[in-house]
Amino acid sequence: MTTNRDKVIWITGASSGLGKALTLELNSNGSKLIISSRNMEQLLTVKRNCPNPENIAVLPLDLENYSTMSALVSKAMDIYGPIDILINNAGISQRSLILDTDLGVYQKLMEVNYMGTIALTKALLPHYVGRKQGQFVTVTSLMGKFSSPYRSGYCGAKHALHGFFDTLRMEHATDNIKVTMICPGFANTNIARNALTAKGASQKENDKATQNGMSPEKFAKKMLRAMQSDKFEAYIGKWEIMGVYMKRFFPKLLHRMVLKSQVR
């Protein structure tokens, strides 16, 4: 198992939730961090609340502006030098039925969750290839392995990330580039509150399953162990992770169980 001490790690979506918890945990363990999101104020608050703020650099980033990623990678590398690990954590969820959902909502979900993530990854990839080392850690979801009502666009984008990064892992195995896919179940964050509704507005309310989900702090510890073990995929959650195995072996049973669960 490798260690993240003294490594340069870039975290997107670091202003709240899982990204914030990862920042606090990694900063406590001696990593040099670059933290990114759209919200500069919240990033600065996260930095101030860390035990070693001198080891954190703030770099605002908007995944929808994926044409700027090459320039952002150059800025990031000017801070500490080469980047060892990119944690693709930023993203947005959805809560709406297919019949009701505007096409523009699907476009936004793909641009943020998929296109922005692969644009940043592609911008950093040549530097990894040149050094013959590097790790991409991408936070998808259990919804990238099986699906649930009200999340059609979110599921589609997360499934797409698995297809892309599984290919990247194969194409660059000889370059010593590692890819770890992290698939969260329910986590007690603001993901449900920020989820897009049918017309593209934020839902602005939580749900019981999210409230009862794993704490971000506990999740961060489990995620870092998966990263350090160079796992291909890690399913992190409670009972809901069983859905991955049921999808593989008992897909019709999973279908009936999800319909009965009334998860929103």
Q: What is the fold's blueprint, element by element?
A:
Elements: E1 8-12, H1 17-28, E2 32-36, H2 40-48, E3 56-58, H3 69-80, E4 85-88, H4 103-131, E5 134-139, H5 152-171, E6 177-184, H6 208-211, H7 216-228, E7 233-236, H8 242-249, H9 251-261
Parallel strand pairs: 1-2, 1-4, 2-3, 4-5, 5-6, 6-7
Helix pairs in contact: 1-7, 3-4, 4-5, 8-9
Structural overview:
It contains nine helices and seven strands. By secondary structure, the chain is α/β, with parallel strands linked by helices. It has a single domain (8-261), classed as 3-Layer(aba) Sandwich (Rossmann fold). It is globular. The N and C termini lie far apart (38 Å). The mean pLDDT is 94.
Report the major sheet.
7 strands, parallel
> Number of domains in the coordinates?
1
Give the number of helices. 9
Indicate the overall shape: globular
Q: Structural class per helix/strand content?
A: alpha/beta
CATH fold group: Rossmann fold
CATH architecture: 3-Layer(aba) Sandwich
Spell out the CATH superfamily.
Answer: NAD(P)-binding Rossmann-like Domain
Rg for CA atoms: 18 Å
Strand order of the largest sheet: 3-2-1-4-5-6-7
Question: What's the multimeric state?
Answer: single chain
Number of strands: 7
- β-strand percent reads 5-15%
What is the CATH top level name?
A: Alpha Beta
Uncertain segments are none
Mean pLDDT: 94
Please bin the fraction of helical residues. Answer: 40-55%
Pattern of helices and strands? EHEHEHEHEHEHHEHH
Pfam families: adh_short
InterPro entries: NAD(P)-bd_dom_sf, Sc_DH/Rdtase_CS, SDR_fam, SDR_family_member_7
Organism: Arenibacter antarcticus
Protein name: SDR family oxidoreductase
